[in-house]
Amino acid sequence: MLESSEGVLSVKLHFFVDEEGIRSLEGCAQATVTLVCQRCLEPMDYSVEADFAISFAFHEDMARSMTGRYDPIVLSPDKRMSLVELIEDDLLLSLPMFSSHSDGECQVKTVYEDQGPAVEAGDDQKKSNPFSILANLKKPE
Question: Pick from 5, 21, 13, 1: which is nearest to 51 by CA?
Answer without folding.
Answer: 13
